[in-house]
Amino acid sequence: MDQLTITPHLQCCALLRNLALTDKRIAKSQSLLARQREIVAELERAGNDCVSARHMLASFETVHALRIADRERLVEFLSKG
Prior knowledge:
By secondary structure, the chain is mainly alpha-helical.
């Protein structure tokens, strides 16, 4: 069976595509975070229960932090290569 050879150039291209995708995901999660913060504030102003909305906000913040960490790792890896 033939082996697929991944050249450094191909690896770099794949990492750059992954970085671009990660940047898009970060932008999307920033938008989701902003909207969820608005929802929490609206619920609080109206005197409504916002426990579920706060849990969702915390989940969004965790995912966002993970995406930023992924981006930092990609940038670091690309800067070494």
